[in-house]
Amino acid sequence: MRAKLTYALTAAVLVVYFVLAGSRGVLLIETGTPLTVTFGVAVLILPVIGLWFLWKNTQFVRKANQLAAELDAEGGLPVDELRRTPSGRIDRDSADEVFAKRKAETEDAPDDWRTWFRLAVAYHDARDTPRARKTMQHAIALHDGKQPEAA
Questions:
Q1: What torsion do the CA atoms of 67, 90, 130, 98 make, to the nearest 10 degrees?
Q2: Residue 125 near residue 82 (C-beta atoms within 8 A)
Q3: Which of 25-29, 58-62, 94-98, 147-151 has the lowest mean pLDDT?
Q4: 113: closest CA among 91, 137, 132, 129?
Q5: What DSSP letter does each residue of 52-101 carry, written as one string?
Q6: What is the Cα–Cα distance from 85 to 34, expressed in whole angstroms?
């Protein structure tokens, strides 16, 4: 719940920032000189890109949470079997062992979104966020019945 609240607060702050930046862009365009119109258009592009990124990220998080809830209802969420250091960080060798197991499961059932979901969690535990995200996108595409991109 805390993560959702933090995400919502961050998204709200970003939207306020985008509105403020966009209003400055409009003011620059209204000035009417070629230089200020050029800057105004450039300033307006940034909030548009930011809103698009925020929208896509929100969709991704929502879909990943839906998959997690469905997998939890099936009793298929990965069990936390990772060893941790005294400070609470995941032991690297432990993460590598679990990753190898999850990768083998995915190779055995490449069309099952559940194995891809668990592999994404293993990537995340191994601190490989880009691959975790790409693998989760693959799981989402499989779940939605779409042709996933090569992961």
A1: -60
A2: yes
A3: 147-151
A4: 137
A5: HHHHHHHHHHHHHHHHHHHHHHHT-SPP----B-TTSPBPHHHHHHHHHH
A6: 60
Cα(12)–Cα(33) distance, integer angstroms = 33
At 85-137, the pLDDT tens digits run: 888 888 888 888 889 999 999 999 999 999 999 999 999 988 889 999 999 99
Answer whether 123's CB lies under 8 Å from 99's CB. Answer: yes
Structure tokens at 132: 């975790």
Average pLDDT of the residues in 135-149 = 89
Joined together, the tokens standing for residue 69 give: 């809830």
pLDDT score of 104:
95
What's this model's pTM, rounded to 2 decimal places?
0.79
Q: Do residues 28 and 43 lie in contact, with contact meaning Cβ atoms separated by under 8 Å?
A: yes
State the greatest distance between any 2 C-alpha atoms of the chain, in Å, as a whole number.
Answer: 63
CA distance linking residue 126 with residue 90, whole number of Å: 8
Residue 29, Cβ density class (10 Å: 0-12 exposed, 13-18 middle, ≥19 buried): middle
